[in-house]
Amino acid sequence: MGSIRTLIHSPMLRRVSWHMKRIADKVDRHFFYSLLLGLVVILAVSSLTVWAAETERTLSDFGASFYWAVTTVLGQGDASYVSGPVGWAISWLLGLFGVTIVATMTGALVGFVIDFLIKEGQGMGAAGYTDHIVICGWNSTARDLITELSTDDYKSKLVLLTDHERNPADDSVYFVRGDTSNESDLRRAGIETALSAIVCPADGSKEADMASILTVLAIESIAPHVRTVVEVNNPEHVAHFRRANVDEVMVTSKLAAHLLARSALYPGLSELVSDIVSGGDGSELYRVQLPDDCAGRDVEEVSAMLRRVHGATLLGMSRNGNLKTNPAADFRFELGDNLIVIAESLGDLSPLENATAFSE
Description:
Layout: H1 2-8, H2 11-26, H3 29-54, H4 59-73, H5 85-121, E1 133-136, H6 140-149, E2 158-162, E3 174-177, H7 183-188, E4 196-199, H8 206-222, E5 227-232, H9 238-243, E6 248-251, H10 252-265, H11 269-277, E7 284-289, H12 299-310, E8 313-319, E9 322-325, E10 338-343
Helix pairs in contact: 3-4, 3-5
């Protein structure tokens, strides 16, 4: 049962279904209804003719004649069923008609496969993913974050939505060509079933920030539950993004300025921060759920447990969306808190969800 459910919800099957629906919406249904009606009439007339000319004309004989006509059209009819000139003529006509039907079906199938491959290659398909990350827009930041999110620690599928003729990222990223603020294109990127969306401005201009705001508004109207993270060019535009209900704003120029200033005062900080926030070797930043049995414990107890059990260092915590960095020694944690830690890998922290940290 689980395998059937997995097959039904597989991204490839969802993509094929989307293309079939797209093609079906453009097909002249009246033509196919007429073709189907014509097929039924031809089978009925052929069955009646053979029934009248080749059988004893009983009701069971008519059923056998109709079955023979259908199987003959499909190329599997019994040639010995008819023995007279009328039956032979009907058999030849049905055989010729069957070849035409098979050729039509084969042509339609080949046409669908070709259309599917062409549309997918041009970014005109639909992602079909669930719990994935949608990257809206393309710039140097988008290129670098795709490299970061492609590491082994991050399991989410990536979808890139941008108005490029070809996929500017690597083949591991599903490419959707379109306007980042267009609802139809966002739906093709699977925004309704996405885990989060990252909006990157096309360039450093004011107009690029305005386009990003439109993208956030479009996402919020379609999927308000999706977490939105936006790169902003001008710090003065942050208030506009907040009014658009964006979840997180990253002003890269301001962040870089702070880091440069700190590095000038304290040598080596830039290398340390880069190592923490980037993938590869060394420790990285993670956000994990507080274990149930850590509730009511103070910072020293939880910090000691993290170091002892997971080799992680506590930096801060989040409660009800409010972040507290370097909490005081007498601070006590509550159920539902999140921890911000530095650790070698996420795998060492995964037992936190069900751990019994203080059972000993």
